[in-house]
Amino acid sequence: MAAAAPSVFLLMVNGQVESAQFPEYDDLYCKYCFVYGQDWAPTAGLEEGISQITSKSQDARRALVWNFPIDVTFKSTNPYGWPQIVLSVYGPDVFGNDVVRGYGAVHVPLSPGRHKKTIPMFVPESTSKLQKFTSWFMGRRPEYTDPKVVAQGEGREGGNMEAVIPKAAWICLPAWLTLSFCPQ
User: Fold this and answer.
1) Of 54, 59, 61, 58, which Cα lies nearest the Cα of 16?
2) Cβ atoms 56, 20 nearer than 8 A
3) Which residues pair with 181 in a beta bridge?
4) Is the pTM of this model over 0.85?
5) What is the spatial distance between Cα 147 and Cα 144, in angstroms, rounded to a whole number?
6) Closest of 75, 78, 82 to residue 43, by C-alpha
7) HEC string of 82-106?
8) Which is nearest to 173 in space by CA: 123, 112, 105?
9) Most exposed of 9, 71, 121, 182 (fewest Cβ within 10 Å)?
10) Strand, coil or helix: what is 149?
11) Separation between Cα atoms, residue 142 and residue 132, nearest integer Å
12) pLDDT in tens, 82-124
């Protein structure tokens, strides 16, 4: 009896980082990257990207609008390690240095169709007053060297930081999702 050819499935993510609400900040830009398991491999599109700098809109919402496109295709033989998108938002501080204004992550939806995800953002904060003052004085606020750690369970503990979720800081992420199963 002949062995069956291994089959893969494709996950196509097509969407955009639409807008954000950061009431206290202006002139922000966004970076995205994907985190996925060992069985997953990107086959087309970009795994990471960086947007333009945007200012708050002049309407009542005062939203930061990026409309930043995302288009990537993954293949896998196993759903374990389903992809997550990690977003990092940066902007200038009072000294003009780019500092992190928020981190967030969300799993790519499991079902095909149109989805809209709202991602709560958080900022790591120093735990002691001395660390807070030193980081403010030096213009270097706490941030992750690799933002992918936001989507992983390991590597975040013992970081001597607190996570602070600013009021009403969120990102809107509408996307079209397509799943295809195909023999290899």
Assistant:
1) 54
2) no
3) 9
4) no
5) 6
6) 75
7) CCEEEEEEEEECCCCCEEEEEEEEE
8) 105
9) 182
10) helix
11) 9
12) 999 999 999 998 888 888 998 999 999 888 888 888 888 888 8
